[in-house]
Amino acid sequence: MPVKVAIVPAGQWGTALAVPLARRGHEVRLWFRSQRGAEDFQARRENAARLPWVKFPDNVTGTADLSEALDEADMVVLAPASSGLQAICRAVAPLLNRNAILLSAVKALFFDGKDISSPDGAALASGVIAEELPDAARRLAVLSGPNFALEVARELPAGTVVASRDEQVARTVQDVLHTARFRVWISTDVTGVELGGALKNVIAIAAGLSDGLGMGHNARAALITRGLAEIGRLGAAMGADPLTFAGMSGLGDLVLTCTSDLSRNRRAGIAIAQGKTVGEAVAAIGSTVEGIPTTRAAHTLAEKYGVEMPITAEVYRVLYEGERPEVGMERLMTRAPTTER
After folding, report:
1. Burial class (CB in 10 A: 0-12, 13-18, 19+), 72
2. Element (H or E) spanning 100, and its range?
3. How many CB atoms are located within 10 Å of the residue 325 CB?
């Protein structure tokens, strides 16, 4: 049965998710931050600023009126950059349909400069949403997987995972979103799914540093493998199911983000290794690089839970303490030999 879905805001990833939703016949409303953006979408049937040349059918509409976008919406997809999540939650709070399912498409960890709370708190996007929208927390799901927006929008085959602590909520989202080109698995491990999706960005920066230094494919493979190990260690300390990290939001997203030229985080690492400052690297990419703030949050979480995360620690030193990338990579290679586990 078709449902009404609001996507807030109409960024690249949110707009891409409109494609499988439209394919299922749902009424999809994209919320644009500007009237001009909404009008251009309606006139051209494309989000030229985010996904040019991808045409949308008539069951996808654009609006700059948030109340119009959310009116009687059965599901609301929250897809801002992490820096805007809190503000988006506060904006939608008075406008939500009381029974609407919330789907977070944010892949990041959060750090307020003072403390990171428990796995149910503000370390995860779901925690931020639950704090800002407590009445909707029981209807919250998160989406994560090896998905580049452009490929999803072009309907190239892809898979993802939706997690909710309420399995029925996850199944409802699966039914709404699943298509022959966008396969959706479900999980109840919200912590694991979110951690995998966020922490892979940190490892992707490390892979970019390695690639930018010309360290080769072997080094990248080692970083991916050991990166997965430290993601799993932190996940276990935070109560996640270790098997989650062998799935789409863990290994799947990690491999994709560490190997593709479409990965912003990997490209940022390459640029930094080639001599750009962090600010220059982000400016050159021209879009949010979620792995940068997530690195700081992950470094703090590792200290809080007493988990060894050497790759994350070196990325942190490069990004926040000015360490030269070659020094960080060398430090990883010259650590004391130990067992693989």
Report:
1. exposed
2. none
3. 25
> How many folded domains does the chain comprise?
2
- Cα dist. 50→36, 144, 287, 297 in Å? 14, 20, 10, 28
Confidence label for 115 from pLDDT (cuts 50, 70 and 90): very low
Task: Please check whether residues 183 and 213 belong to one and the same domain.
Answer: no
Q: Would you say residue 118 has pLDDT above 70?
A: no
129 and 55 in a common domain: yes
| Domain final residue pick, 191, 219, 254 | 191
pTM score? 0.94
| pLDDT score at 110 | 86
Give the structural domain span for 124: 4-191
Q: Is residue 339 part of a domain?
A: no
DSSP state of 235: H
338 assigned to some structural domain: no
CA distances (Å), origin 303, targets 21, 118, 320: 40, 13, 16
Among 175, 191, 207, where does a domain finish? 191
Distances (CA, A) of 80 to 9, 139, 239, 258: 6, 19, 26, 22
**Same-domain pairing of 57 and 9:** yes
DSSP 48: T
User: Does one domain contain both 174 and 216?
Assistant: no
Select from 189, 157, 155, 153 the least CA-distant residue to 170: 189
Strand order in the sheet with 140-144: 60-63, 27-31, 4-8, 75-78, 101-104, 140-144, 158-163, 182-187
Give the residue numbers marked as catalytic: 200
